C-alpha cells in the first residue's frame, strides 16, 4: 500500500439557491479528521463530492490529494446505509470488492477481521439473518478489508450499543493507524476520543476545534476527553437552537 496522502478541498456547494457549505478544508495525511455538526450542513456531501458520487447540488471549487496523484481507486468508503447484498453471505459481502475487480480475495484475512469484530461464527450466514448492529459491523469489516490509504467513514458506529461501539472504535483506530481517515459523526464523544483534527460544520461556518493534547485514541473517561466532549456539545446545542 502506498503512503496515505492528505486532501485539500476549497469551494462552495449549492443546492438550488441555498449554499450548503462554503469551506476551506485540509484533511491531514495519516490522521483522523472528524466532521462534526448537526444534520443537513453537508458533512456526508463532502464525502460524496470527493468520491465523485451524486450530491444533489453544484460544487464550485476544487479538491485534490496532497501528493498530486488522482484520488480514484485509493479511497475505501463506508456509507451510512450498509449497502450489503442480502443474497450473499457475510464473508462474500466482505470480499465483494476484490471479486468485482477480478482479484482473488484473501479469505483468511477476511475471517481474521470477522473474528476481531466478533462475527466469526456468522461468516456463512446470509445478511438478512443479522441484526442492525451486526450488519454495521460487517460493513465496517468490508471497509477495513479493502486496505486503502484513505478511508471515509459515515456514521460507522451509530447502530452499535455503547460497549461494542467503544470496541469497534478501538479496532478501527488500530487497523487504520497509518491511514488518512475522514469520519462523519453527530457524536461529540466520538470526535473527542478519535480525532487528531475536529472540523465543526454549521450553517454559518466551518471551523477547526481544539483537540485534547493527549494522543488519539483517548480514554473515554479521561478528563481531557470529557471536557472536549462537553464543550463540543454546548456549542452544537447553541448552533442547533
Describe the overall structure:
With 241 residues, the chain is of the alpha/beta class. It has two domains: 160 residues, Rossmann fold (3-Layer(aba) Sandwich); 64 residues, no CATH class. It is 34% helix and 23% strand. A hairpin with a 2-residue loop joins β1 and β2. The N and C termini lie far apart (45 Å). The mean pLDDT is 96.
Structure keywords:
6-stranded mixed β-sheet, 241 residues, 2 domains, 8 helices, Rossmann fold, 3-stranded antiparallel β-sheet, 9 strands, globular, single chain, alpha/beta
Outline the fold blueprint.
Layout: E1 7-15, E2 18-27, E3 32-36, H1 43-51, E4 58-65, E5 75-78, H2 90-94, H3 96-100, H4 107-116, H5 132-146, E6 150-154, H6 162-175, E7 180-185, H7 188-194, E8 197-201, E9 206-209, H8 223-240
Parallel strand pairs: 3-7, 3-8, 5-6, 6-7
Antiparallel strand pairs: 1-2, 1-4, 8-9
Mean pLDDT across the residues is 96
Shape: globular
What is the count of structural domains? 2
Beta fraction of the residues? Answer: 15-25%
Stretches with pLDDT under 50, minimum 5 residues: none
Helix content: 25-40%
Biggest sheet layout: 6 strands, mixed
Secondary-structure arrangement, i.e. CATH architecture of the largest domain: 3-Layer(aba) Sandwich
- Please compute the radius of gyration using only Cα atoms: 18 Å
CATH superfamily of the largest domain, please?
Answer: P-loop containing nucleotide triphosphate hydrolases
Q: What is the CATH level 1 assignment of the largest domain?
A: Alpha Beta
CATH fold type of the largest domain: Rossmann fold
Amino acid at each position: 500500500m502506498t503512503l496515505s496522502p492528505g486532501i485539500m478541498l476549497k469551494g462552495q456547494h449549492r443546492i438550488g439557491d441555498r449554499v450548503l457549505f462554503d469551506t476551506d478544508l485540509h484533511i491531514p495525511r495519516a490522521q483522523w479528521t472528524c466532521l462534526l455538526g448537526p444534520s443537513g450542513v453537508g458533512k456526508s456531501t463532502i464525502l460524496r463530492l470527493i468520491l465523485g458520487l451524486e450530491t444533489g447540488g453544484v460544487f464550485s471549487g476544487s479538491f485534490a490529494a496532497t501528493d498530486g496523484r488522482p484520488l480514484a481507486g485509493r479511497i475505501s468508503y463506508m456509507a451510512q446505509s450498509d449497502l450489503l447484498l442480502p443474497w450473499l453471505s457475510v464473508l462474500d459481502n466482505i470480499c465483494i470488492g476484490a471479486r468485482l475487480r477480478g482479484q482473488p480475495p484473501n479469505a483468511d484475512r477476511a475471517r481474521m477481521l470477522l473474528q476481531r469484530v466478533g462475527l466469526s461464527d456468522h461468516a456463512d450466514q446470509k445478511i438478512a439473518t443479522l441484526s442492525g448492529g451486526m450488519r454495521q459491523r460487517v460493513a465496517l469489516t468490508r471497509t477495513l478489508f479493502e486496505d486503502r490509504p484513505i478511508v471515509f467513514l459515515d456514521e460507522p458506529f451509530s447502530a452499535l450499543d455503547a460497549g461494542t461501539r467503544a470496541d469497534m472504535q478501538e479496532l478501527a483506530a488500530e487497523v487504520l493507524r497509518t491511514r488518512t481517515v475522514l469520519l462523519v459523526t453527530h457524536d461529540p464523544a466520538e470526535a473527542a476520543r478519535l480525532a487528531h483534527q475536529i472540523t465543526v460544520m454549521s450553517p454559518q461556518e466551518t471551523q477547526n476545534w481544539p483537540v485534547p493534547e493527549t494522543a488519539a485514541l483517548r480514554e473515554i473517561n479521561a478528563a481531557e476527553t470529557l471536557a472536549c466532549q462537553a464543550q463540543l456539545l454546548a456549542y452544537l446545542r447553541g448552533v442547533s437552537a
